[in-house]
Design goal:
four-stranded antiparallel β-sheet, globular, oxidoreductase activity, FAD binding, oxidoreductase, flavoprotein, alpha+beta, Enolase-like, domain 1, CO_DH_flav_C_dom_sf
Length: 266
């Protein structure tokens, strides 16, 4: 590690002001990815601006149509929130499967989304539920937020303050995880809405989270596990690494989608 300054922000405006004053400064959420990168000298910010103590970023609001989660709410608190469990159980269950207990106690929703790790779980929920990412200055639709590997629509000094998740008719998340890190080798979030539309978001299989149009069309016509299994996924743009080949990930996608549909149907 190397020397750097640490500041604890008390409000979003102050945090953004500090970042604006120092282009080498970075926001600090749970630090699960940033601190590891700093230890390897892959990131060398001059100042870390801790946003996890900002009260407005630690709230959860739930009604019949929307679950709004503050950016500094940790994964463990999303998983344990009784209102989320009752209204949007798929989100609580996804949060409960992130990393290990220590990661869930420190990692935050906003930090996960801003980092946009290709194998992270939360991006699948955001894209699959057509959520809105709320920042200190604008609202960004899920379809416009994720741009590529570790790349989002956020400006360097832009701070996520909350995420608004629409409540679907039914939803579920399934992943085939790395047994050590619990990152998704492939993960699938499926959501069906009251108007009959279906969204299927895939994480862990490509450079960034993406929607599977073929699966969405098949499940819109018939929201059944059999319909999901019948869809063939091309491996062309999928990842091959030491954990799994592109062909294996292509095979997993409809299998996991079918399992998610089964879970969503209860």
């Amino acid at each position: 590690m190397y020397a750097f300054d640490y500041q604890r922000a008390s409000d979003a405006q102050g945090a953004v002001k500090t970042i604006n004053a120092d282009p080498e400064a970075k926001f600090l959420g749970g630090g699960q990815s940033l601190l590891a990168a700093m230890k390897l000298r892959l990131a060398q910010p001059s100042t870390l601006v801790d946003v996890t103590r900002i009260p407005a970023l630690k709230t959860v609001q739930v009604d019949a149509k929307t679950v709004t989660v503050g950016a500094a709410v940790c994964h463990a608190d999303v998983a344990a929130n009784a209102q989320i469990q009752a209204t949007l159980p798929a989100l609580a269950q996804l949060a409960a499967g992130i990393g290990d207990r220590q990661v869930r106690a420190l990692g935050t929703l906003g930090g996960s989304l801003a980092n946009d790790d290709p194998a992270a779980d939360y991006p699948a929920a955001v894209l699959g539920l057509n959520a809105t990412v709320v920042t200190d200055r604008r609202r960004i639709a899920a379809d416009d937020f994720f741009l590529g590997m570790y790349e989002t629509a956020l400006e360097p000094d832009e701070l996520i303050v909350a995420v608004e998740f629409p409540v679907p008719q039914r939803a579920a998340y399934e992943k085939f995880h790395n047994p050590a890190s619990h990152f998704a080798l492939t993960g699938v979030f499926v959501a069906q809405f009251a108007d009959g539309s279906v969204r299927v978001a895939i994480t862990g299989a490509a450079a960034s989270v993406f929607r599977a149009g073929g699966l969405e069309d098949a499940l819109k016509a018939s929201f059944t596990p059999a319909a999901a299994r019948a869809v063939s996924i091309a491996p062309d743009d999928l990842n091959t690494d030491l954990h799994a080949s592109a062909a294996y990930r292509a095979h997993l996608i409809p299998v996991l989608t079918a399992r998610a549909v089964t879970k969503a149907l209860g």
